[in-house]
Amino acid sequence: MIVRLISGDTPRSPILTALLVLILICLAGAPFIFEGVRALDTAARICIFILLVASYDLLLGYTGIVSFAHTMFFGIGAYGVALASTHMGRGFDALLVGSISGALAAIVLALLIGLFSLRVRAIFFAMITLAVASAVAVLVSQFSNITGGEDGLTYKIPRVLTSANRMGEVMGVKFTGKILNYYLIFVCSLVLFLILLRIVNSPFGRVLQAIRENDFRAEAIGYRVVWYRTAATCLSAATAALAGSLFAIWLRYVGPDTTLSFEIMLDILLMVVIGGMGTMYGAVLGAVLFVLAQTYLQNLMGAASHATEALPLIPELVDPDRWLMWLGILFVLSVYFFPTGIVGRLRRQRAT
Q1: What is the pLDDT of residues 151-165, one digit of tens each?
Q2: Where are the beta strands (DSSP E) in 209-329?
Q3: Nearest one of 100, 81, 46 to 154, comparing CA atoms
Q4: Which sign does the torsion angle of CA 126, 253, 24, 202 carry?
C-alpha cells in the first residue's frame, strides 16, 4: 500500500528511509511535539518549501531546464489568494478562487514562455526567464493601487483558520484555528507532493528524464521535445503557484520581498543542490535542512558564543551576526562532501 502510494519510488537506503519517516512524523505531529508559535511557523514553511522545491526539481532535476522564474509563479499564486481575499472577503470561496486563478495564470504564463523560449539553448532560456521574472516583480511593485506596491497586501482569511477560533484541548494542547490552518497546509502539501512523485515515475516522467539525458536522441525516436518541456514547465508553474497560495493562506500577508524576491530563487537552488537533483526526496531533505538553518542557526551560534566567551577568538567567530557566513560554509561543505546531494550519496552507499 505504501509502495503504491509513493508510486514505487522507494528511498532505496535505510538511512534515507529513517530520515524521511522521522521528518513525516515530526511534520504530522508538529503542533503536539514542538512548543511555541515559532516552531509551528517553521514546520509550515518547511511543508510549503518542500512542495516549492519539488516543483522546481521537476524542471531542473528531471527535465534539465534551468529557470530563474520559479519565484514568479510562486508569487502569482500568493497574490491570487491575496487579491481574491481582499475583494471577496474572508471566506473559503475566496481562497479557492484565488488558488485556482493563480494556478491558471501561472500555467498560461508558463505556456507562453515555454512555446516562445524553449527552442533556444539552456543558458538563453535561463536569461529569458530571469528577464520575465524581473519585469513581473517591477510591475507588481509599481501597480500599488492593485498589489499594494512595496508595502504588499494584508487580508483576512476565514476565522475558523485563525487563532481566534478556539476548539478546546487535544492531548494537552490548546487546539485553535491556527493549528487547523497548519494541517490544511500539511495535507495539501503532502497530496501535491505525492502527485509530483507520481508524475516523475510515470511514462511522462521517463520521457522527461530521457530528454534531460539526450534531447537529440529523444527527438530522433519520435518525442516532441518542445511540447514535453512546455508541459513540464506548466506543471511545475502550477504547483509552484499552489505552493504560493498555501504560503499566502498561512502568512496572511503578501509582498514582493516575501514571494517575488530573487533571494528566494537562490534559496530554492540551494535546497535542490543540497538535497540532490533528480529526486523528489532530495527536495524534502534540502528544504528541511535549509529552513531549519535559516531559522535556528543564529540562535545556536548565540548560545555557542555565550558558552565560549571565556576563550579567545572563538566567540568572535561564532558571533550570531556572522550566521550567513557559516551558512555559506555549510553549503560549500555539503557540495564538497555530497556532490550528488544527500539523497544521491545515501543511495550510492546503499548500492555499493
Answers
A1: 899 999 999 998 888
A2: 253-254
A3: 81
A4: negative
